[in-house]
Amino acid sequence: MAMPENRGGFLIRFDEDRRAELLRERGELEGGFSDALSSNDWAVKEWEVIGLLLAPGSITHWALARKGKKVATGKVRVEFTEVTPTQLRLSEIERRVGPKIRRNIISARSGVGGRVPPATWVGMKHAVGEIDANSLKALERLERLRDQSRTFIEQPGAGIVAQERDAVGIALDVFDQTGQIRKRTLHGWAAPEGDRLSSFLEGLAGVRTIEDQLIARDTTMFPGAEKVHPTIVGAVFAVGGRKLEVFNVNRTAVESTLGVDLLYWDETFDAWTSVQYKLMERIENRGERHAVYRPDSAFDAELSRMREFRARTPDSWTIADGRAAYRLCGDGFYFKFCSRVQLEVLSESLLPGMYLPRLLVEATLEDGAARGPRGGRVITFENTQRHISNTVFAELVRDGWLGTRGGSSKQIASIVRAGLTARRAVVIARSRPAGDAANLRATLSALDV
Hints:
Number of strands: 18
Largest sheet: 9 strands, mixed
Distance between the termini: 32 Å
Low-confidence stretches: 208-225, 227-232
Strand order of the largest sheet: 7-8-9-10-18-11-12-15-16
Strand content: 25-35%
Order of helices and strands: EHEEEEHEHHHHEEEEEEEEHEEHEHHHEH
């Protein structure tokens, strides 16, 4: 991957004391904010790296910002995101690079100032590294985000990482009905440095991968959530009295992985839901473009394994099982057919596509409408007629309307191992009460992976 472009950046002084104080006091500042500024130096809708001066003589935060529409004479709305706290005295930086840096500081009130030139910016970064290595690391991460935001990530394995990203995102939406944790998590992803992609989780800010250990290190804060503890396999999110563990399991390099599965395990309802990702291709027919999935022998083998599982574990419910075990559908197997797969940064969106229950997929394939012009089987938006959206799927799983009515760890493990044997990456999300003493190591042990 190319090195971050040396294009300089901006330093903005919020020189109205009350305004700066209000921003500092905002509890959601690190979740992003917007403000009207008197600056005309930014390209519209292009992200730039910013140093915020919310206290006299100090850089208090690093952030990304882009200009929006005019909101008043001489003022524009500027959106700030990925706001990361730091504490750097300008006098310490000046002692190392000289007073020239002050000439470029933009006044939020008057708009005076401008872009810090590339050479000066490089000198400032050297000074920051000497003062606070963690601050420099945060700054360079924002530079990578800025540079990567100008194009889609197209390295080998990008499609698999995009599916993992979506699986993590929908798991977070199931867990948190506000959607804020998903937006913050997906928006903050950056492709790791170097030329090789690995799992999606490795690109999240604050998450550390640790060889052969399950030791929590740093802590990252997410809006609406308590602490997020990074581990070797993912992260643990906490909201109120609940926790969500999310981690990847993959036995092959991401560029040679053939697909992604999501396993969502909700202990409150004693239910688990499996989602297999399938990529649709875009074809043109009579001047119109359509999204099409063509089942193959591997797909048939996957369906066969699902049927075998259901044969071993029949789905049934009686009032004696309890109301929490009632389901609209207790099968547990779903597919997400993605009409477009692309990996991008500074995006909070899930992949477009459709969720379909296994039983509906089988019924569709048995219908004559699923036959293509040459007799092959196809799945399309048109011949399925109905599907479940991202939002509805998350709501139904969250409230226990979908998913199995229980299932032993041994049976669940067989599904996970089958996916790994088929060279698929597995994203496992386990939702449980916060008071549960079990941990990630226990989860992996139970799944025998």
